[in-house]
Design brief:
The structure holds two protein chains of two kinds. By secondary structure, chain A is mainly alpha-helical. Chain A has helices at 2-39, 55-65, 76-92, 111-119, 122-132, 136-167, 172-178, 192-205, 217-220, 230-255, 277-298, 304-331. The longest helix of chain A has 38 residues, at 2-39. By secondary structure, chain B is an all-alpha fold. Chain B is built from nine helices and no strands. In chain B, helix 2 (28-48) packs antiparallel against helix 3 (52-76). The longest helix of chain B is centred in the N-terminal third of the chain and has 25 residues, at 52-76. The mean pLDDT of chain B is 82. The chains are: A mainly alpha, B mainly alpha. Chain A binds chain B through residues 3, 75, 78, 108-110, 113-114, 116-118, 120-121, 123-124, 127-128, 131, 139, 143, 146, 150, 153, 170, 305-306, 309, and chain B through 3, 27, 29-30, 33, 36, 52-53, 56-57, 59-60, 63-65, 68-69, 71-72, 75, 131, 133, 176, 178.
Chain lengths: 337, 198
């Protein structure tokens, strides 16, 4: 009986995360079009529903009802598995993300490692999609993307080692609790260079502008997903936005105190104590999502050799250097604060 | 039968199936994908033993990095599958020979070692916490620090030798110097010409 209760409990909490997540993804696409529209003096979507609010729903209906075209010489099995391989890891990671003080689907000890391992899997979707499509553009896109993801994954992992050194734990709840005290105790102050590297590497990992050479509309049409249509394309689309939200929420958990209130430790704390931690986490995440969209509207695409140079020759040495600095500061008992 | 045992049997059966698929599938890309699956399944087996650090590192390093590069290379190969089948019969005797020798060695190894295993060795390791990760880190950085450093040096040597073997200075290299490119000023690129009104 216990096990049945456990399974039902887990299923309900999974639904509580995944269903809102899909809705959020839909409205992130809407806000992306609106925000970039305003930044470029346009209106964005306005026709479907009041001020275009039903646009994402219309998009979903369109994508679902479209035919999935499979190219003649494509490897059918891998062609259809690739989008799933892209989407599933980015959904799985949500199992270990603490959304508030109490709500976390699975509070495992090695949460941070779990996240690193799963985010490193999304590259398979890209590579296999490019290979199975049997198209030159798709293959070029997947080659570019794979090299880029590997280059930035290392810098990203090392940036998180800094968080690990300061918190002394791989458990995400403990990492957040270690940051409590006040806004000055959050890890972004001692780990500021690592935070910047983490966020920029995160933009590169999600293949978004200015690191979107794997899609590169003006060079290779749409990169690895040229041949995809309908639901199969929608899954790539979903995975991209899911990863965007994921990088934003992880940045706020690792460096900005997760669900901790920013007024902690000041006289304002008692006035704001009625706000649940989930709201603070959402606000922090929304700021990062906005920065993602802002970057896309502002920066031109990186040249390919520059991307590689930034990853290997700039980010990696900086992370090594800063980890040494953090190590020395911990040894001299200046850190953790 | 409890849940742990059931999970173990399901995953080890799948592991055997995928491992066989790695060597029998005709398409090299499919073989690589099956190898990825088998890494996953063995990670699950490690997880069942409570070794969460090793199992996640297996996925992170082998699946997330090594196999990606592997797939990269395998995809570039242009292998003719029909030709491969002809080679299969040609190399069959050698394969059987290797198979027999390897198995005989493994059996001898098992006969010799199972009698001499010191099962108490594991009890002499200091257990400092519940977490497998912390214990492993503690043991690696105290008792086995010399071995750990030697492993690091060997890996460094591997990186260096790979670079030395493959690096060739190409005289036609079109390398761009980024600092030079950034230092460009308006007057280097733009020339305003007066008096050409028409």
């Amino acid at each position: 009986m216990d096990i049945i209760f456990y399974i039902i409990n887990t299923l309900v909490s999974i639904l509580m995360v995944v269903v809102p997540l899909f809705l959020i993804v839909a409205y992130v696409t809407y806000s992306e079009r609106k925000i970039i529209g305003f930044m470029q003096s346009r209106m964005g979507p306005t026709r479907v529903g009041p001020s275009g609010l039903l646009q994402p729903i219309a998009d979903v209906l369109k994508l679902v009802s479209k035919e999935i075209i499979i190219p003649t010489n494509a490897n059918k099995g891998i062609f259809l598995t690739a989008p799933m391989l892209m989407l599933v890891p980015s959904l799985l990671v949500w199992a270990v993300i603490p959304l508030s003080e109490f709500f976390i689907i699975s509070n495992i000890n090695a949460g941070l490692l779990f996240i690193l391992a799963l985010t490193s899997l999304s590259v398979y979707g890209v590579i296999l999609a490019g290979w199975a499509s049997n198209s030159k553009y798709a293959f070029l896109g997947s080659m570019r993307s794979a090299a880029q993801i590997i280059a930035y994954e290392i810098a990203m992992g090392f940036a998180l080692v800094g968080v690990l050194m300061l918190s002394g734990s791989l458990n995400l709840q403990v990492i957040i609790q270690e940051q409590s005290g006040s806004i000055l105790n959050w890890f972004w102050i001692p780990l500021f260079p690592l935070f910047l590297i983490y966020f920029i590497a995160g933009v590169a990992e999600t293949n978004r502008a200015p690191f979107d050479v794997s899609e590169g509309e003006s060079e290779i049409v749409a990169g690895f997903h040229v041949e995809y249509s309908g639901m199969a394309f929608a899954m790539f689309f979903l995975a991209e936005y899911m990863n965007l939200i994921l990088i934003s929420i992880l940045s706020s958990i690792m460096f900005f105190g997760g669900w901790l209130s920013p007024f902690q430790g000041t006289f304002l704390d008692t006035y704001f104590s009625f706000i649940p931690g989930f709201v603070w986490l959402s606000l922090k995440t929304l700021i990062f999502i906005f920065i993602f969209l802002w970057l896309r509207a502002t920066l031109p695409r990186y040249r390919y050799d520059q991307i590689m140079r930034l990853g290997w020759k700039v980010f990696l040495p900086i992370t090594f250097f800063w980890l040494t600095v953090i190590g020395i500061l911990i040894y001299l008992k200046y850190l953790p604060l | 039968m409890n849940i742990e045992l059931t999970t173990f049997f399901i995953f080890s059966f799948l592991l055997i199936v995928t491992s066989i698929k790695v060597i029998t599938s005709s398409n090299p890309v499919l073989s690589a994908i099956y190898l990825v699956f088998s890494f996953f399944l063995s990670a699950v087996l490690w997880l069942l033993l409570g070794a969460e650090f090793l199992s996640i590192i297996l996925i992170l390093v082998y699946v997330g990095a090594v196999m990606v590069l592997f797939l990269f290379v395998v995809m570039m190969l242009d292998i003719n599958i029909a030709k491969k089948n002809a080679a299969y019969i040609k190399y069959l005797p050698v394969g059987i020979g290797v198979f027999v020798i390897f198995n005989v060695l493994i059996i001898f190894f098992f006969i010799n070692t199972f009698e001499n295993i010191n099962y108490n060795a594991i009890n002499s390791i200091n257990v400092i916490s519940e977490s497998n990760t912390e214990n492993l880190g503690y043991v690696l950085f105290t008792d086995y620090i010399v071995e750990f450093e030697i492993a690091g040096l060997i890996l460094l040597l591997g990186i260096l030798s790979a670079i030395v073997l493959t690096y060739r200075k190409n005289p036609n290299n079109k390398y761009q110097n980024p600092t030079e490119q950034i230092d460009v000023e308006k007057k280097d690129r733009l020339k305003i010409i007066k008096g050409l009104k028409e």
